[in-house]
Amino acid sequence: MKTLSIVVPCYNEEETILPFLTTVQEVEKKLTHELIFDYCFINDGSVDATLDILRDISKKYINVHYLSLSRNFGKEAALLAGLEEVRGDYVTVMDADLQDPPELLLEMYAKIQDGYDVVGTRRADRKGEPALRTIFSKIFYWLINRISSTEMVDGARDYRLMTRQVVDSILELGEVNRFSKGLFSWVGYDVTYISFENKERIAGSTSWTFWELLKYSIDGFVNFSEAPLTLAAWAGSGSFLLSVLAMFFIIVRRLVFGDPVAGWASLVSIMLFIGGIQLLCLGIIGKYIAKIFLETKKRPVYIVKEKG
Description:
With 308 residues, the chain is an alpha/beta fold. The chain has ten helices and eight strands. It has helices at 17-30, 50-60, 75-85, 104-113, 131-147, 164-171, 180-186, 210-224, 227-257, 264-297, and strands spanning 2-10, 35-43, 64-69, 90-93, 118-123, 156-163, 191-196, 304-307. Strands 7-5-6-4-1-2-3-8 form an eight-stranded mixed β-sheet, sandwiched between helices. α5 runs parallel beside α8 and α9 (227-257) packs antiparallel against α10 (264-297). The relative contact order is 0.14.
């Protein structure tokens, strides 16, 4: 039989691991004649009892394994660690908080058998999510799909079922600054999505604050679009053109009408405006340079401290 590997990144998930495992095992029973389930939990530097629980369940169940990273490297690193570790014929990525409904695995596996390479999931709504986060999420997807050649589906989760070939293709992408939502889309293949209603965490609290999500979205723009650099170039060109027109206007007015050059307030405003544009452009360029700097250092994306 073929193997289904389940990659589960964990950060301070002591309250959710056991309920998650119990719920997925119920799904496992329904596919026991078709698939061998293999669980790989990634402890991403948790400071609670997550690692102790993973040690216990790995001893209790022969098909449960874990990696413990040396510190908190972030979900992207934990996700990569899991994908590089597992060897299943099919691979799925799930959150331990049960916001990704395990029962969808049945439908996802059926669609894989129909010939799809990837079966992803997306939230049909954002019920229960703060209004501000919902608004910014919609703005992000609307904007990224207009400035990037890589399509990203609004509401898509990391929760997806992939064939071995797809996973191997993702692992060939050796970049350090990873934005998985984009990488999953970039590799292509035959993809379909299943929609589901948004679910709340069963316990604990999310580590994704509004500012963390905002920084993550900026990484998406930088990693998958050159549009910010183009914007900086156009802003600089526009500022230069306006300054030339302003100088021409002042010279003509002085020669024709003899008006003295006045208006210190307007002059200061213009200087601040141009200075602001310059700083904005430098900031955009600096962000790209910072990404290049991180890539050239060739540091490992994660470090494994313990394996079980």
